[in-house]
Write a structure and sequence with these properties.
This protein is an alpha/beta fold and 279 residues long. It has a single domain, classed as 3-Layer(aba) Sandwich (Rossmann fold). 36% of the residues lie in helices and 24% in strands. α7 links the parallel β7 and β8. The chain binds adenosine-5'-diphosphate (ADP) and magnesium ion.
């Protein structure tokens, strides 16, 4: 039994081994005044897929940017707490150094370079590497995403699904220990969501890459993750195994029932406080 709010270090995902990524009670402020994350904690065990779920505006992207160091580019900063990765503290470090330590973020809205080909985009992903295996890894990416090999034109002409595949492929080219994915399902048809998530699972299994998966599509995310965290207004309000979250009545009602933006807040739910103790 865990309760993230009162016991940030005892999250459900922690297990016995030290997690690869540990976000401990962080606060994030934009422009020196806008407080967005208010004591957020989460753990990602090595080799796991962990889902970070929540409605629009909850602070999911901010959490990923705090981890990847990209907050700096938006005048944001971690003002309290700490972020540990692979045994060392990484909050406050430049984004490029964080990439070199093994974390690669796939940004929301698949930011690929549209006036370059897929191949050129993939080579860009390998910019931190000096080894000679880049070509072999390009073949590996094409094995996961055969369509990218067939489509030799500019990436801007790829379909939404193909662009998402390219964004993930580019992340793989950095040979990261961990990938942060920001809403890979966004804008994709249900069929494509299935296809992309099946490949995410396969990549995790084959390569052992640890994945922190941010989603509004809780159903898709919990189908591949082992653990999940649900956040609201800059805090984790619930966490547990993917199975326990899928079976949780409140999660069903608010995140799996297709309520969309009509959903109410967990905090206004009478049953929430009682139920969360059982997760
Ligand atoms: N660069 C920024 N400057 C100021 N406020 C921001 C910035 N980016 C995001 N926010 C605010 O932080 C909150 C959380 O945003 P975000 O992390 O993008 O949420 P999510 O990804 O869950 O939709 C929102 O209220 C948003 O307006
Ligand atoms: Mg976002």
């Amino acid at each position: 039994m865990t309760d993230t709010l009162e016991n940030p270090r005892m999250s459900a995902a922690a297990g016995t081994a030290a997690p690869l990524l540990s976000v401990r009670n962080i606060e994030v402020v934009y422009d020196d005044v806008i407080l967005v994350l208010r004591g957020l904690s989460l753990d990602v065990p090595k080799g796991a897929i962990v889902a970070l779920l929540g409605a629009n505006g909850a602070g999911k992207s901010t959490t990923l940017k705090a981890i990847s160091g990209l907050l700096k580019t938006e005048d944001g900063a971690v003002t309290r707490g700490e972020i540990m990765f692979d045994g060392a503290r990484i909050d406050g470090i430049d984004p490029e150094k964080i990439v070199r330590r093994g974390i690669f973020q796939v940004m929301e809205g698949r930011r690929i370079v549209s006036d370059m080909t897929s191949l050129e985009n993939l080579k860009l992903g390998a910019f931190t590497r000096s080894d000679r295996d880049v070509n072999r890894d390009i073949e590996m990416v094409f094995n996961y995403f055969p369509r990218l090999k067939e489509r030799t034109g500019l990436a801007g002409y790829l379909s939404g699904g193909e662009q998402q595949m390219l964004a993930i492929g580019r992340a793989l080219m950095a040979r990261p220990k961990m990938i942060l994915m920001d809403e890979p399902s966004m804008g994709l048809s249900p069929l494509l969501v299935k296809e992309v998530f099946a490949i995410i699972k396969e990549i995790n299994r084959d390569l052992g890459v640890t994945i922190l998966l941010v989603e509004q599509n809780a159903r898709a995310a919990l189908s591949v993750a082992s653990h999940g965290y649900i956040m609201e207004q800059g805090k984790v309000v619930l966490d547990g195994t993917a199975d326990s979250l899928r079976d949780n009545e409140d999660v069903k009602e608010f995140y799996l029932g297709g309520a969309g933006d009509q959903r109410k807040s967990f905090k206004n739910l009478k049953s929430f406080k009682r139920r969360k103790r059982w997760l």
